[in-house]
Amino acid sequence: MSAGRFRPRCTCRRGTEHGRGGVLSGLLRATFAVLALASGEVAAQPAPRLTVVPPAWPLTGAGGDPQTAIAQARTSDQVSVTIGGSIQSSLGPYGDPLGFRAALSERGITYTITYIGEGLANLRGGLKRGATYGGRLDTSLDVDLGRLAGWTGAKFHTDFFQIHGHGLSRSYVNNLTTVSGIEALPATRLFELWLEQSLLDNTLSIKVGQVSADTEFAIAQSAVVFFNAGFGWPNIGAVVLPSGGPIYPLATPAVRVKYVPDARLSVQAALFNGDPAGMHRGDDTDPQRINRTGTSFRVNDPPLLIGEVAYAYTLGLWGENLHGTATLGGWQHAGGFDSPRLDGVAGRLLADPEASGIARRFRGDRGVYGIIDQTLYREPDTEDEGASAFLRLSKVPGDRNLIDVYLDGGIAYKGLLPGRPNDTAALGVIYSRISPAARAFDRDSIRFGQSTGPLRSSEVVIEATYQAEVVPGFTVQPDFQYVMRPGGGLAGDDGRRLKNATVMGLRATINY
């Protein structure tokens, strides 16, 4: 969706390696068969009891694990977040005309409608000054198949997006980490469509269908309040993976297995089709245009494997027990990846005028990430007001990727102002380092006379935001971002490095 999410190229060349993705296709079919057998066995048993969560962690946080960050925001553009509150409660008898919604809920059918609208302006720097408006209408449907049809432990979920407006990063800033988490090309598209089966007294779950990785993996609960897309899915994956990876707005077929033996520990892994859009057709290389409606359902691309372990713990700070989560994860992609510097002909550099112009191809790519998400302070005599902080680091090989190190961190405070218990203020920083190979390409280009510079180095984003709850389910949020060295230090039309960009924005979110 940015140079982080909406611009990553497909790294697969025509006729190379796509057949290996048949592993996922076969696994999907096998998993459906296992689910069918398991559901038949489980359905004959008494309904399983829900996993008991200790009183210390009564809430579910972003990504489905226990909420340990006290400052998790009430609303968010991230699809991993269950939005707190619904405007239905403020509409009185008009909140559920004829009781239709309540009647469906009794049968295990729930739906949610969320609209996010925002105005953003680049006041200086970047590509050019200007302003945009963008919006996203989310409609989601969840079905408890146990209550509806007697299929014990089974859930169905699907959601659709109607995306409209224009993106500030694409048109005005040209940065690596998209200014807004909803920025995408205008479209009406299917996002996720999956079936989940819970087993072993709800400690094991298997999800099959079209899935997005950023709904469950690499999530920092304290970061969900921010505008910038980098605070959602670590931008290092969005930049280097084919078509930006299986993240908003492009989900892809997958199988996800999650094991939660107790409220503190969760282990999960997923096998995704490795390219949600696939090879480009003609001159159009934008993944969102290639997969316009989200219904490509590709299963034959080289697979992407992601695994993650999260552990919820408690620290004694300032005489109080405060919760946190430590997460360690990694991914492996089986496709082909281009060198930013080396030509396909041995001994040649891409910047050499006599080179073939076809980059050296590496087999596979991989990455690791770690997250610390910690509540730092709880307001006296409150359950959900106080400060939380997060730190997230990700690393990938520097010889086949545009960026090789990604780091973000920040602090959020819920209930900072008296009388505003559900408002959230936050300050965060993102650092994306241009890889050694990409920096060497810049030096080679100058040496061979193909460029006069500048040399790319890194991009830094500083964001300050404040989310105010008007009524439950309705928030407004002013935002400020300062983007240093957009694109890592890209050159503008004048050949000079793009100036640092100053961005202001205002978002409104309504949830029903």
Automatic annotation (TrEMBL):
InterPro entries from the xrefs? Carb-sel_porin_OprB, OprB_Porin, OprB_sf
Q: What is the protein name stated in its UniProt record?
A: Carbohydrate porin
Q: What organism is recorded for this protein?
A: Methylobacterium currus
* Family listed: Belongs to the OprB family.
Q: Which GO terms describe its cellular component?
A: membrane
Which GO molecular function annotation, any one, does this entry have?
porin activity
Task: Name a Pfam family for this protein.
Answer: OprB
GO biological-process terms attached to the record: carbohydrate transport
